[in-house]
């Protein structure tokens, strides 16, 4: 396959294959292994505070001298109202009782103890650490932040799940767009979390390609040569892989979570807001089945912060019914080899089937 294009030249990579910034799964070691395969690695920072961002960036820098991206969340933070306080307490009580009924004795945090971080406080840390590629999701950055990052020669990659979002990103001066299809694992990158776009990936990609002029990365269901070829044919200059790597040696998933991947069927995969308050695609379990479609889901990020300690306890106890394992619709063997090996094999297989 002909890999070289404007996107690969811009980011100085041989293969425009991007490792998805999976918060909690993509580790500095995964980022480094991706780079070793001559692909592009991205370190997820999520909503970490500035000090933890610096710590994660410096750890990754200690493993590789090459450029890598960092990923942040651009969502708006809902104000704390009396209604939210009441809903929080009700949700907290319900989930605590539900957990105890399932042998998970835990005291969830109070609302006043929850710390919510905005991307604004991460920006200076990113600039200080001389990061030159920043991707973001859950919305768009404000104009001042875009200008500030561009003034430090930072390349910006925004995520869209609709044509309207793609146009908004292009019009605000974002350099590259990542088009996320409905097939993708993990959290939806939608600007709004209410009326979530349900657009199939290749259909969305083709439409966005017709509307915008900046380079496009496609994410959603990419895991083999034919899905790469389909994305490139529909107008993408690069592809993003996430679920392909979640079982890898460098993945942050625990062994029992990786084990669960090997018995998946189509009916096990669902979209849910139950763990975080934002739609995400992952493995259906008891927590999701009980909480979804109930009043016990707070707006993001409060639900995510509330359930965080519960998920950590469930991980420690190897309880797959109370952890969030995010995975997309393209089921495959979920290799446990190194990310470097998985990506190198993907490139080799693609070249064999689609020679340049």
Mean pLDDT: 97
End-to-end C-alpha gap? 4 Å
- Beta percentage is 5-15%
Instruction: List unreliable stretches of 5+ residues.
Output: none
Question: Quick one: overall form?
Answer: globular
Order of helices and strands: HEHEHEHHEHEHEEHEHEHEEHHH
CATH superfamily of the largest domain: Aldolase class I
Specify the number of helices: 13
Largest sheet: 8 strands, parallel
Proportion in helices: 25-40%
Please count the beta strands (DSSP E, at least 2 residues each).
11
Find the CATH topology of the largest domain. TIM Barrel
Q: Which CATH top level class of the largest domain fits?
A: Alpha Beta
Any idea what the CATH architecture of the largest domain is?
Alpha-Beta Barrel
Protein name: Propionate 3-nitronate monooxygenase
Cofactor: FMN
InterPro entries: Aldolase_TIM, NMO
Keywords: Detoxification, Flavoprotein, FMN, Monooxygenase, Oxidoreductase
Quick structural overview:
With 356 residues, this protein is an alpha/beta fold.
Structure description:
The chain starts with 5 loop residues before the first helix and ends with a helix. It is globular. Helices cover 38% and strands 13% of the residues. Helix 4 runs parallel beside helix 12. Strand 10 and strand 11 form a beta hairpin. It has an eight-stranded parallel β-sheet. The protein has a three-stranded antiparallel β-sheet with strand order 7-11-10, with no helix packed on it. It has helices at residues 6-11, 28-36, 50-61, 82-101, 120-128, 143-151, 163-171, 201-211, 225-233, 255-261, 286-291, 302-316, 339-353; strands at 17-19, 42-46, 69-73, 133-137, 155-160, 176-180, 186-187, 216-219, 238-241, 269-272, 280-283. The protein folds into two domains: 1-77 and 116-250 and 333-355, Aldolase class I (TIM Barrel, Alpha-Beta Barrel); 80-115 and 254-324, no CATH class. The longest helix has 20 residues, at 82-101. It is of the alpha/beta class and 356 residues long.
